[in-house]
Structures are given as structure tokens and as C-alpha cells.
């Protein structure tokens, strides 16, 4: 009790933040019970009747649910394959630049897309890729090619979705690798140079092994997030023409839940996603720890 | 001689790849900016690439004259400032006690906070909560539910932890209270990371539209991004209608106006961010090294 008296100021400070977590994080956790209820707005969460697993049975019988599940996994996996190596390569190349002013300017510009909203990016993408008026298609037409339906045909859309993601985030992604590279002992490079190793060999034998741990930990973390909620990007870049590929769990929940007001159904889908996501993260973190890494905690 | 030559070639290849990537990053902006400054007839003819044709500032004047646009800009500025102040305050008062190892129950508080990063109620329970608290269609629906970002909290906590314990101890011996330590020692030493987090909070609010999409139906309270979304969405729908040959282009907004709106929401960020870049790179690295 003595400690609590001594630290009363610290506890006072914590009251507001903890109240925030309680009200805005833990109360909604209680709200997931409506996944097991026949929720009715007028009766509220408490008085709506329990229905057991009925809502989940309905969810698991919906073809649209499986489509959204497949798309979530597919888009995230594609992002991982296309988007994961990009910042690593970019960081290694940036590190090889000797002109400091150029390196710094390049970094400033490469980070920029990360700070734009998906709406702005969506606006730019539609301007550039529109089938009739977009710059890219005007260029293709001037070469005598047919316009490419970047945003309205599902396979083209998939490619667009991936590349826009790379464009937005790979510059920012270099920060963490550049940090790892700066912590590599510089004498290793000097020694390799004396031994006659060229630049490529130095990258291969010193830089890459030096950031191997960072790469592994980020890879594991990304794998853990494979079912994570991403709303902005698929919602903005997607459209009714490509819904076959662009409808992911989060947009599905929004459509079914808030637009069609089927609260119980949407909550059940959200709960499924949250639970699977948590299991993924715990497992991958466990693997990270087993690999001798620090993991997330 | 041979090795020096190959060194030179290597340098050139690296430089050109990076240069190409950099150009790829800013070219779209130049194109959109050029369109926003060009006349509509030149745009429709496909004459506008990277430089404006038949330059006019008309679109920007139109935006500034449009009450909905300026109103939503003003609202977004207000929202961003208010949100950033509140979030920084809340994050600071949460992070400081959690770095004090002698605090009883510290681990429990930490666990309760970190757990929310892994499990959440989801969209619908969040929505019902905001609705039940009667926050929908108020500015508070856009501020309160996201006051503290766990990620930012962890960055700040990690930074506070790196301040030498002996410094805080000596202040305490001089009769400084916990609050005094926080305000007189910890915060002045933390300006780089505070600037970083402030920028993160501000940018995230400036860019957010999801919460407004869920909680706001009153057009007066539309943040700039939601406004922009309606404009962009309109353009995509019309473009597809043209492709199908079924739509009419009569009620289509001029391309230059759409581009001007995009620039309008982009320019503030482009102006602020280079000044703070050095800080936030440092700040992120501090957070990353632990992560």
C-alpha cells in the first residue's frame, strides 16, 4: 500500500488513458457477443436473444464469405511476394550511393507517397490509368496499342493493386533496413575491399548477412498479418467491376454490416477475422522466438 | 584500372536505378498538377503530360469560392489540430508512468494495452458504441475512438526508457515530484520523438476517411478526404460509363477541377513534411530497433 501512496501521481496520470482503453477498446470487445445473438437495435446488446452458433453457421454457408476470405489472403500474399523484397533492394542500392546530397534528396522523395491518403492515391491512379483519359493509356494508344483496362478487368486490377502498393510503401519501408545497415561494422567492408572483393561481392557477403535478422523478423511479422484488416486500399482502388477480387473481409463486413445493417452477421465475420489473425500472430511470434529472435515482445 | 572502371559502371547503374525510382515517385504529382492548371479542351485532346497547357488558375479559384470545399478544409484543419493535441497529451501521460519500473501493476497495465493491438471488437461493435454514446455526427466521433495509437505509445515509451535513470533519480533527490520530472526533464529531452509522433498523429487524421465514412452523415462535418472521395468516385463511375458507351458525360466534373482537388489535399502535407523528415526518421528508428 505504501507504494501506491508514494506513486499516486503516476496513477493519476494513468487514469485517463486507461479509461480510454476500457471504454473504446474493451467495451467493443464485449460487443462481439452480438455474434451469438439475434441482435436487434431496439432491444440493445443485453436484451437481444441468444442464438448460439446460428449466425456463424449462416456465415459459413455464404459463398461471398469464402470469396472475401480468399481475396484477403490472396491480396496480402501477393503484397508479400511483390512488395516485401522491394524495400530491401531499394535500401541496399541507397546505401551504395556516395553522393550524400543525392541520397538524402532521393530518400525525402521516396518516403513521400507513404504520407498520402489512399483517397489521394486513388485519385492519382484513376487520373493516370483511366481507360479513356488516363495518361498511360493515351501513351499506349499513341503506340497503336489497345487501351489496357487497368482498373476494370480483374486480372489487370490485381496487378495494379500490387504495383500501387509497392509504389506507396516501399520507399518508407527502406528506413528500417537502412537502420540495420548502419549498424554493420564498417571494418568488415574495409577488410573485404583489401581482399579485393568488388561492390557486388561486398553486398552479397556483408550487407545481406548483416540485415538478415531484420529481414527474417519482418517477414515473420508480415506473415502473421496475412488476414489483417485492410480497408482503405481495397475499398478505394476496388470498384464494382472487379468485386470478384477486390472484396476482402473488411469491405465485406462494412457492406453487410453498416450498409445492409446485418449487425450480427458482420460481427461474426469480424470476430472470425480477429481470432484467426490473433492465432496467426501468436504462432509466428512463437516461431520468431524459436529462431532465436526477440519477436514482438 | 579494370576494377576502377567496373566501380564506375556499378555506381552509374545504382544511380540510374534510384533516379528512375525517384522519378516514378514524383511524376504522377507533376501530371496531376499539370492537369489542374490546364484548360479542359487541352486535357480532353490529351495534350497535357507534365507541363500545363493553356495555364489558368481558374480551378483553384473555383475551389476557394466553393463554400463546401473551404468549409470542409477549415473543419479538417480544426479536427487535425484538436486531435493531435489531445492524442499527444494522452500518449504522453500514458507512456511516462509505464516506464517507471517501481510502479506497482505496471506489467498488468502494459498487458491490457498491448492486448488491444491483437484483438479488437471490430467494425460493428465499435460503431454501436459510438452510436450509443451519441457521438455520431459530432467531431468527437472522429477524435475519441482513436485517441491513443498503441504503436505510437510504444515508440514513446521506448524513447523514455532510453533516458538515463540516474538523471531522473538526481532530480528526485532535489525534491522534484513525478510530474516535475516529466515536465522538467523527460519532455525537454524528447522533442525529436514528440515532433515525430505529432506528425504521425496529424498525418493520420488529415488522411483518414474511414471513421468519417462510418460515423458522419452530416455534410457539414465531412473531412476533406471524404469530400475528395466523392469527387474521385464520381470520376471513376463516369469513366466506366463512357467505356461501356452507356453513360452521358454531361454531369461530369471537369478533369482539371478533380485534379485541383487532389492537389488541394496533397499540398499541405508536401509543405509540412520535408521540415520534419529528419526528426521522424530518427524517431522511427528508435521505435524500430526494439521492434
UniProtKB/TrEMBL annotation, chain B:
<feature type="transmembrane region" description="Helical">
    <location>
        <begin position="181"/>
        <end position="203"/>
    </location>
</feature>
<dbReference type="InterPro" id="IPR000515">
    <property type="entry name" value="MetI-like"/>
</dbReference>
<feature type="transmembrane region" description="Helical">
    <location>
        <begin position="257"/>
        <end position="276"/>
    </location>
</feature>
<keyword id="KW-0472">Membrane</keyword>
<protein>
    <submittedName>
        <fullName>Carbohydrate ABC transporter membrane protein 2 (CUT1 family)</fullName>
    </submittedName>
</protein>
<keyword id="KW-1133">Transmembrane helix</keyword>
<feature type="domain" description="ABC transmembrane type-1">
    <location>
        <begin position="73"/>
        <end position="274"/>
    </location>
</feature>
<feature type="transmembrane region" description="Helical">
    <location>
        <begin position="108"/>
        <end position="127"/>
    </location>
</feature>
<feature type="transmembrane region" description="Helical">
    <location>
        <begin position="12"/>
        <end position="37"/>
    </location>
</feature>
<feature type="transmembrane region" description="Helical">
    <location>
        <begin position="139"/>
        <end position="160"/>
    </location>
</feature>
<dbReference type="Pfam" id="PF00528">
    <property type="entry name" value="BPD_transp_1"/>
</dbReference>
<keyword id="KW-1003">Cell membrane</keyword>
<feature type="transmembrane region" description="Helical">
    <location>
        <begin position="73"/>
        <end position="96"/>
    </location>
</feature>
<comment type="similarity">
    <text>Belongs to the binding-protein-dependent transport system permease family.</text>
</comment>
<dbReference type="GO" id="GO:0055085">
    <property type="term" value="P:transmembrane transport"/>
</dbReference>
<keyword id="KW-0812">Transmembrane</keyword>
<dbReference type="InterPro" id="IPR035906">
    <property type="entry name" value="MetI-like_sf"/>
</dbReference>
<keyword id="KW-0813">Transport</keyword>
<dbReference type="GO" id="GO:0005886">
    <property type="term" value="C:plasma membrane"/>
</dbReference>
Amino acid at each position: 500500500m505504501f507504494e501506491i501512496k508514494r506513486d499516486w501521481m503516476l496513477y493519476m496520470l494513468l487514469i485517463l488513458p486507461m479509461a480510454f482503453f476500457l471504454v473504446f477498446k474493451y467495451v467493443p470487445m464485449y460487443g462481439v457477443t452480438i455474434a451469438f445473438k439475434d441482435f436487434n437495435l431496439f432491444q440493445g446488446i443485453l436484451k437481444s436473444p441468444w442464438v448460439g452458433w446460428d449466425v456463424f453457421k449462416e456465415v459459413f454457408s455464404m459463398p461471398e464469405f469464402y470469396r472475401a476470405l480468399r481475396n484477403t489472403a490472396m491480396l496480402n500474399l501477393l503484397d508479400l511476394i511483390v512488395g516485401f523484397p522491394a524495400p530491401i533492394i531499394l535500401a541496399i542500392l541507397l546505401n551504395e550511393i556516395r553522393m550524400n546530397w543525392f541520397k538524402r534528396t532521393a530518400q525525402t522523395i521516396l518516403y513521400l507517397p507513404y504520407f498520402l491518403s489512399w483517397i489521394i492515391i486513388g485519385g492519382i491512379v484513376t487520373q493516370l490509368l483511366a481507360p479513356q483519359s488516363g495518361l498511360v493509356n493515351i501513351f499506349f494508344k499513341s503506340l497503336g496499342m489497345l487501351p489496357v483496362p487497368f482498373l476494370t478487368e480483374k486480372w489487370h486490377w490485381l496487378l495494379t493493386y500490387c504495383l500501387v502498393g509497392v509504389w506507396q510503401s516501399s520507399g518508407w519501408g527502406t528506413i528500417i533496413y537502412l537502420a540495420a545497415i548502419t549498424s554493420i561494422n564498417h571494418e568488415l567492408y574495409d577488410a573485404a575491399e583489401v581482399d579485393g572483393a568488388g561492390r557486388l561481392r561486398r553486398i552479397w557477403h556483408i550487407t545481406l548477412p548483416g540485415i538478415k535478422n531484420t529481414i527474417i523478423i519482418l517477414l515473420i511479422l508480415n506473415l502473421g498479418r496475412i488476414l489483417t484488416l485492410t480497408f482503405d486500399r481495397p475499398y478505394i482502388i476496388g470498384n464494382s467491376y472487379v468485386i470478384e477480387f477486390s472484396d476482402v473481409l473488411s469491405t465485406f463486413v462494412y457492406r453487410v454490416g453498416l450498409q445492409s445493417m446485418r449487425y450480427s452477421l458482420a460481427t461474426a465475420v469480424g470476430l472470425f477475422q480477429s481470432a484467426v489473425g490473433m492465432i496467426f500472430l501468436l504462432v509466428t511470434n512463437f516461431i520468431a522466438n524459436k529462431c532465436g529472435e526477440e519477436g514482438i515482445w | 584500372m579494370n576494377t576502377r572502371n567496373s566501380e564506375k559502371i556499378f555506381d552509374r547503374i545504382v544511380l540510374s536505378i534510384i533516379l528512375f525510382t525517384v522519378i516514378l515517385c514524383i511524376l504522377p504529382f507533376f501530371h496531376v498538377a499539370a492537369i489542374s492548371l490546364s484548360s479542359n479542351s487541352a486535357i480532353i485532346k490529351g495534350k497535357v503530360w507534365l507541363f500545363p497547357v493553356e495555364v489558368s488558375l481558374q480551378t483553384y479559384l473555383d475551389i476557394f469560392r466553393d463554400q463546401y470545399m473551404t468549409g470542409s478544409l477549415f473543419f479538417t484543419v480544426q479536427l487535425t489540430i484538436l486531435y493531435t493535441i489531445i492524442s499527444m497529451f494522452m500518449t504522453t501521460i500514458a507512456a511516462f508512468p509505464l516506464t517507471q519500473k517501481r510502479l506497482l501493476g505496471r506489467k498488468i497495465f502494459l498487458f491490457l494495452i498491448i492486448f488491444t493491438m491483437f484483438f479488437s471488437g471490430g467494425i460493428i461493435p465499435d460503431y454501436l458504441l459510438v452510436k450509443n454514446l451519441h457521438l455520431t455526427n459530432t467531431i468527437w466521433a472522429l477524435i475519441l475512438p482513436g485517441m491513443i495509437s498503441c504503436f505510437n505509445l510504444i515508440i514513446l515509451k521506448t524513447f523514455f526508457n532510453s533516458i538515463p535513470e540516474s538523471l531522473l533519480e538526481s532530480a528526485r533527490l532535489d525534491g522534484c515530484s513525478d510530474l516535475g520530472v516529466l515536465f522538467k526533464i523527460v519532455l525537454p529531452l524528447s522533442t525529436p520523438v514528440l515532433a515525430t509522433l505529432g506528425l504521425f498523429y496529424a498525418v493520420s487524421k488529415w488522411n483518414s476517411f474511414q471513421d468519417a465514412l462510418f460515423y458522419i452523415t452530416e455534410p457539414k462535418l465531412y473531412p476533406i478526404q471524404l469530400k475528395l472521395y466523392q469527387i474521385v468516385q464520381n470520376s471513376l463511375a463516369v469513366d466506366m460509363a463512357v467505356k461501356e458507351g452507356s453513360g452521358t458525360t454531361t454531369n461530369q466534373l471537369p478533369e482539371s477541377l478533380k485534379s485541383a482537388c487532389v492537389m488541394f489535399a496533397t499540398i499541405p502535407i508536401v509543405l509540412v513534411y520535408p521540415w520534419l523528415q529528419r526528426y521522424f526518421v530518427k524517431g522511427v528508428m528508435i521505435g524500430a530497433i526494439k521492434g
